[in-house]
Amino acid sequence: MTIATPTTRNGVDTEQMYATLDLLKAQPELGQAQFRVTNRWLGGAHNRSTIKGFFAAGGEDTTRDATFEVDAGEPAILLGTDTGPNPAEHLLHALAACLTTSIVYIAAARKVELTSVESTLTGDMDLRGALGVDDEPRNGFGRIGVSFRVTGDAPEAKLREVVERARQRSAVYDMVTNGVPVALEVTTS
Amino acid sequence: MTIATPTTRNGVDTEQMYATLDLLKAQPELGQAQFRVTNRWLGGAHNRSTIKGFFAAGGEDTTRDATFEVDAGEPAILLGTDTGPNPAEHLLHALAACLTTSIVYIAAARKVELTSVESTLTGDMDLRGALGVDDEPRNGFGRIGVSFRVTGDAPEAKLREVVERARQRSAVYDMVTNGVPVALEVTTS
What we know:
5 helices
């Protein structure tokens, strides 16, 4: 009799995960990646990003078939027509998504079967900053609140450890809390 | 004969814009806003944010009819099935969208008619950080490159001033370059 060993936990192929980690330990240079977005203005507060190609594991990706399109907009009070979430809401989504995936992957690595991961994020902003009415308030959120509800087959302490480790490893959490150098160039023809 | 004064420039109602700015100057407390995202894990690297309600101008918004849903995922090499852009790509989109809308609004205020705004953003990351293989590389992008192409009915110098002002006022640019305090809480039942 053969007992199959399930290698998928939380929807993550853990054998592939361990193989990926081993490969990056053996060949650290394969860790270099570049992600890209192109964006086009469509009128007023409406613009759209197109997302497909990226560089990872020593070469340009050839596996992603889909071309993703993500629209942004502003609500009426911010002079738009709700053509999509506004940019600050997209940033909250990026943070929620990254923390969630980090929780799911870390739980898989630690043999925790999750049953649900839900989060609510809030960002408080004084609009006078971004609208240029006053120089005192910053442009962005002064504070972001993240509230997670995580359930699974592990004791509370272990679930909390998983979330804490996700916070320590999340790419977007790192960027949103610590900032990233941004180089901006412009052409006008 | 009546000559209509067009109040819309670049798709932005400039009369509404000036009225909004005047209101915020007169009643600074109306600048307080809160944006929100709720996110739910759907399996593996797939999660979805739902975005609708927000607080602005002294009250809870009642104008936004749409409920936006934005999906995130990971490509195969990062153990996902391409259910959406990955979280770091969503962060690049948030930055592109915010800079673009800032450019469009500032151009409208400065009487510049834009004909196109396009951007390409790149983010370079050592995946060993977020995957926990090595403590040395940071988790997020070490650097973001933003390349804008902006055309319109103004001289190059004025177009460049508009982009520079947008950089100084963009909410997401501020957050991504300077960071934001994030408070994270967890419940496990």
